[in-house]
Specification:
By secondary structure, the protein is mostly helical. The chain has a single domain, classed as MFS general substrate transporter like domains (Growth Hormone, Chain: A). It has 16 helices and no strands.
């Protein structure tokens, strides 16, 4: 199958983003090992806020600085990479740095994906980008794990690796991306008032609103079950390999007609993984099973969510305003759920917190399937009527 030119140009940067994103798991492990759940939740809140601030600054200054999607993507790698290499790597500094990476690269990615691909191209692109994300994530995780195993679990080696990879990749891999208009911001509040946008809020909450809670729980479960960062790296690498194998054997099976089936299967696998995460409170070895199952279903769920997210942005208004409006609402939903979970952390033991949070994530995954399936069904019906 021939890959479109725009897709070929964008995929190397998507692969790099997938590789650098695996740093988040190591940061969470380092913080939980050295501190406690409160420190992890503070890091998560700071990271999510830094991501939003980076997005707003980029889109506000876009016209003045001529921040095209291509240039913004490159900056999203280079600036955080330099901060990783040169900063003191404290939890607060890493929250700001990793948050800036998330905000800048994802705001550039949304802009480019919505500008370069039609709805009919999104499923094949999601499959290809998901596969590359897993493959390069495996490579980065394995390299970091080998450094940890050979360096007495020294986290500074991991930070050096990811910082250098981010800077070098940002300088080299974004050059072939097609030019677009500079990102900008005009009237995002008008987008938020649209009934079509308001109708997306339940999906936004279920798909991304619990992001911070999931990050904190995964790190807490890892520290409870695994003795060192290198062991965490080996488990993450092995789990990611399972996801990579699954993606390879199903790489040609995804298309517009079976979107709902892929969403259902991936939600079932990921929801089951969250149940295993909760059960690991009593049997720590189940964390390994959770990691494998989550890695097996995660890329497929991410691909389905990618298509859903792009469809939620197919509404009236400037594309930049739609992206900014979505990111602002996601931040509010994520912070609300995180703060509520933080309050719960003060009332429950660590075991109770892990179980309660895992059950909440499993339930949210099931509800995401119900809402997402309804979205796909409505889209199919509208397409059939139009045909």
């Amino acid at each position: 199958m021939t890959i479109p030119a725009n897709e070929r140009a964008l995929l190397p940067s998507i692969a790099l983003q997938g590789a650098i994103s695996t740093l988040g798991g190591f940061i969470g492990f380092f913080i939980m090992r050295a501190h406690d759940v409160d420190a992890m939740l503070r890091f998560t809140a700071g990271m999510m806020t830094a991501a939003l601030v980076a997005t707003l600054l980029a889109y506000s200054l876009g016209p003045r600085l001529q921040l095209t999607g291509k240039r913004l993507f490159s900056i999203g790698f280079i600036v955080p990479g330099l901060l990783i290499l040169l900063s003191d790597r404290s939890p607060d500094m890493m929250a700001a740095t990793f948050g800036a990476f998330i905000g800048l690269t994802w705001s550039a990615r949304h802009w480019l994906e919505m500008s370069l691909f039609s709805d009919a191209q999104r499923d094949s692109y999601a499959a290809h980008s998901g596969a590359l994300t897993v493959v390069f994530g495996i490579g980065a995780t394995l390299a970091a794990t080998l450094l940890l195993a050979g360096g007495a679990d020294d986290g500074n080696r991991v930070y050096d690796l990811y910082g250098a990879l981010s800077v070098i990749g940002g300088l080299l891999l974004c050059k072939r991306i097609p030019d677009t208009e500079p990102v900008s911001i005009d009237r995002p509040l008008a987008v938020m008032r649209q009934p079509q946008f308001i109708a997306c809020l339940p999906l936004f909450f279920l798909e991304s609103g619990l992001f911070g809670v999931g990050q904190a729980l995964s790190s807490a479960g890892a520290v409870k079950a695994l003795g060192s960062a290198s062991q965490f790296g080996w488990v993450a690498t092995a789990a990611s390999l399972v996801g990579g194998v699954a993606l390879y054997f199903t790489r040609k099976n995804r298309d517009v007609g079976n979107r709902a089936h892929w969403l259902g299967a991936s939600c079932l696998v990921v929801g089951s993984a969250f149940l295993l995460l909760g059960a690991s409170a009593w049997l720590p070895a189940l964390y390994v099973a959770y990691s494998v199952l989550k890695a097996a279903g995660g890329p497929f769920l991410m691909a389905s969510e990618q298509v859903l997210n792009q469809r939620t942005l197919d509404i009236a208004g400037k594309l930049s305003d739609r992206i900014v409006a979505r990111e602002c609402v996601l931040w509010m939903l994520r912070m609300t759920s995180l703060l509520l979970f933080w309050g719960l952390a003060g009332m429950l033991s660590s075991t109770q917190l892990l179980v309660a949070g895992s059950l909440m994530l499993a339930a949210a995954t099931g509800m995401e399937y119900a809402i997402g399936q309804n979205w796909f069904w409505k889209a199919d019906r509208a397409q059939t009527s139009a045909g």
